[in-house]
Amino acid sequence: MDDFYSRSGPAYSEVPDIVHFSSVDIDQARSVLNRFYYPVAVGTPEGAEGFGLGVEVIQLGPLTVGQISFAGPVSLVVAELDAYHVSMPTTGRMQARHAGHEVVAGPSTGVVFGPGNPVYTMHDANSAELAVKIERDALEQELAGLLGRPVRGPIDLPPAIDLSGGLGHSWSRLVRLMRDELEHTESLIYQPLIAEQLRSSVLSGLLLSVPHRYHDELTGPVGAGPPRAIRRVVDAIHDEPEKPFTVADLAAIAGMSVRSLQEGFRRHIGCTPMAYLQSVRLLRAHETLRRADPLRMTVAAVAHRWGFAHLGRFASAYRTRFGEAPSDTLRRCG
């Protein structure tokens, strides 16, 4: 039986697109893979029976994470890849050929593809994998933001990633966290601040987990940003604390890498840029609650006005900072 279920979150600039799909029809399977991944030729070995494809996928802007399962043996051929891609088998094996490399991947080894070359993969019957697609521009811009300078792509990622331990295993757990959100109709992934941070973490985590020609620069010692540049960021935060800043946005304001910004804040301010942003937001929320009419204003409205996407976390941070619940401030001071 074929089944297709799609769900999108509330409307904002980057709405997660979530799809659950299963089919025994090759044409339908090809259509779904084309939609979320690449134009692909789907085939089965001669005499093979039991074709079936299952896809559970979440797409957040330039990042796509899917759980793909194969009932029977399947070959996939992409004429030319236009993105970065990592396949991590969770059950069974896959064989891959790409850019002159041949890799046999399983639960302890993932296969990595880069843009500009054809891809051939063969998947065992009763196998499954996590398939991560990252649009080329997004990963290269993430790297440029971390380094604080332009990069010339494509990034030369290795053909395989070790998932048995270390950074590769840690990165795979982060990807699984995003995949697990497929099971929840009410998820923090629908909040733009959380979604953006999670997406950036997946991209940055991959860059930190595998060797490439920028890796030493990315992980080596970093100097602190100068006080004047840090002041520009502080001023921007105070001017618009409700704006959905990411750490990359703040680094761009400073004109430096994310790592230099973080070190500059640690040295000159004594906390991270995002912790400072939250502190300013809490102060603005506190001031608003003190002046608000409790008959006309709600805690949720104040929280959302000052950039807090999750009401429970806002209330917890507020109580830690001011020693009382935000609702108490509203009732007492209104």
Automatic annotation (TrEMBL):
SUPFAM superfamilies according to UniProt: Homeodomain-like (SSF46689)
Signal peptide coordinates: none
Keywords attached to this entry: DNA-binding, Transcription, Transcription regulation
Sequence ranges assigned to domain HTH araC/xylS-type in this UniProt record: 231-332
Pfam families: AraC_binding_2, HTH_18
Source species, domain of life: Bacteria
PANTHER family named among the record's database cross-references: HTH-TYPE DNA-BINDING TRANSCRIPTIONAL ACTIVATOR EUTR, HTH-TYPE TRANSCRIPTIONAL ACTIVATOR RHAS-RELATED
Protein's UniProt name: AraC family transcriptional regulator
Lineage: Bacteria, Bacillati, Actinomycetota, Actinomycetes, Micromonosporales
